[in-house]
Write a structure and sequence with these properties.
Elements lengths: L1 H4 L2 H6 L1 H24 L7 H26 L7 H17 L5 H24 L5 H19 L5 E2 L16 E2 L5 E2 L1 H19 L1 H18 L4 H27 L1 E2 L5 H13 L11 H20 L5 H25 L1
Antiparallel strand pairs: 1-4, 2-3
Helix pairs in contact: 3-12, 4-8, 4-9, 4-10, 4-11, 4-12, 5-6, 5-7, 5-10, 6-7, 6-10, 8-9, 9-10, 11-12, 11-13, 12-13
């Protein structure tokens, strides 16, 4: 085991990321066999891949955002409802009030940023527990979205409609019928940007240091409150962007929902190697963790089971990931 961990390639890529890639490939082959045995169908198809990717696009942005918050030692349980709230408000302005498409997309991002700013301010400047703050924001987001749309569902325009160009951010269908998953390129690009921010900038270093030892960072003269608040703003902004990819894939948004996405986004981040205690985070690992969750969701549905089974399996994987993470931290200490 020591020889493997000291290998140059393993050190460069990361043992955890290699393990996640192995789990992803293993799950794909496992579902291929199980779907064929149980349903008599072929799991290896472009439709299955595109369906899993549709789920991974918005879930990936939610997980990337919450990775920054968890890196500070906090938590955010409001990201799912905030995403729904942003999609409801911007969609209502687009369909009911006739606002320009580009302005509505900016409104979606702005709504997410405002919720992130609220969470960050209450946690960083008022010293409120992130758990309670985000739970309150979760209920606030659900209420605001419902009140704004008068408890009505919002259906965004289809691709062929006048304002359907936003769906090109998720997929492009050529004249020959070929589907290009542009959402995957968007997710990869944002993941790269997040990795640069977290690992190559002063903001990212301070966010990780806050999670490691907040008091020591404060005593060194760093404005801890500013950088801690920034982590929540990034999280909220990515939730607003996730709303755009969500409606690009699924079109209709219903008020009062989104809670279940919180746990899955956090699971993707933790599965990817982000320590719940803060100070350690991996954007690449989060990306792979989200892909595993998306594949689990698609595979379980393909076998004919209810989505509840996904929660069971995801919960088990997260417990194992947390256990491995804790053991790894103890060995390092």
């Amino acid at each position: 085991m020591k020889k493997i961990s000291n290998n140059r390639f393993v050190k460069a890529v990361g043992f955890n990321r290699i393990l996640l890639c192995f789990v992803l490939i293993l799950l794909y082959f496992l579902f291929t066999i199980l779907v064929h045995v149980i349903q008599g169908q072929n799991f290896i198809s472009l439709n299955r891949i595109f369906s899993a990717l549709n789920y991974a696009y918005f879930m990936g942005l939610l997980s990337l955002g919450v990775t920054f918050v968890i890196a500070t030692g906090g938590i955010d349980f409001s990201i799912g409802p905030v995403m729904y709230c942003a999609a409801l408000i911007s969609g209502y302005l687009l369909t009911a009030n006739g606002w320009p498409l580009l302005l509505c997309l900016l409104v979606s991002i702005l709504v997410g940023s405002l919720f992130g700013m609220l969470n960050g301010y209450l946690v960083a400047y008022w010293n409120l527990p992130s758990f309670i703050t985000s739970m309150a924001s979760m209920m606030l987001a659900r209420g605001v979205g419902s009140v704004f749309t008068r408890t009505q569902s919002v259906s965004w325009p289809q691709a062929a409609a006048e304002n359907g160009q936003y769906r090109m951010l998720v997929r492009i269908v050529t004249e020959s019928g070929t589907t290009i998953p542009t959402g995957l390129f968007v997710l990869i690009l944002i993941s790269i940007i997040c990795a640069i921010i977290l690992n190559k900038t002063k903001a990212g270093r301070y966010i990780l240091c806050i999670g490691s030892n907040k008091e020591a960072v404060r005593l060194s003269g760093v404005n801890v409150k500013r950088w801690e608040m920034l982590a929540y703003i990034i999280c909220g902004t990515l939730a607003g962007m996730a709303a755009i990819l969500f409606v690009g894939a699924y079109t209709t948004v219903q008020p009062g929902l989104g809670d279940t996405f919180n746990n899955e986004a956090i699971a993707g981040s933790v599965m990817g190697g982000t320590a719940m205690s803060g100070g350690v985070a991996s954007i690449g690992g989060t990306f792979l963790g989200v892909m595993i969750i998306a594949l689990l969701q698609e595979g379980i549905l393909a076998m004919g089971f209810q989505r509840d089974y996904q929660f069971v399996i995801t919960g088990i994987i997260v417990l194992v990931a947390v256990y491995v993470n804790v053991r790894s931290q103890k060995r390092k200490n």
